[in-house]
Amino acid sequence: MNYLTEILAFYKWLETHPLSPLLQAYWHLLMYYNNKAAVQAEDGSWHWPVNFKVPNTILMPILGIKDRRVLLRQRGYLIDHGRVTYQKDRGQRAGTYRLMPFDRGLSMAAIRAETGDSVTQIWTQAVSPSAAELSPFININNKHASRLYSNQEDAPFMPQFNLLPQITEEEKAAIRAQYPGNDVAAFNAIWAAREEKQKEVEGLRTLFTPST
Q1: Where are the alpha helices (DSSP H) in 81-182?
Q2: Which GO terms describe its molecular function (predicted)?
Q3: Quick one: which of 30, 6, 27, 31 has its CA closest to 18?
Q4: Contact at 8 Å (CB) between 60 and 68?
């Protein structure tokens, strides 16, 4: 799953499925905690888990909700709109959320976590090979982004923006033609093409940079 493409698709979806500001904030908050629950595979790569937990006691203060029944009602709206599923746990323990991705090219896969023998379901790209490298990364600007949640001191430097070189409109049109009716997959493929172009530019810089 790709954070940026999901957000862009969410706002596109809002044009025909208007939600209250509170519901929009709720969805964004769930995206944040889904991202924060990132799972590291044995090879060191980070992945979006399909299922994740967030206690009501965390969600309610952030959303400015004081009555638990209000949160349950808002959650029901997101479920009815097909944006999330929720499974209760026993007693007072946090239930399990599952965000429903806008990217229709995603499928579920199982990986073994780096620590321990547990197997976790994660989202992975199943349609566009050219964009497959984008899918596992928690933040498309830096594949190590989720480390920011666990250890601020050891976190790598991350620029505020990732300014990739543009491709031509003709190249974009050719890519979109490969994914009719699937804006998210087309965006992923265009982004992958821009990343490839960046690699080419960096390769040329290395080639023509005099050694010291």
Answers
A1: 169-177
A2: endonuclease activity
A3: 27
A4: yes
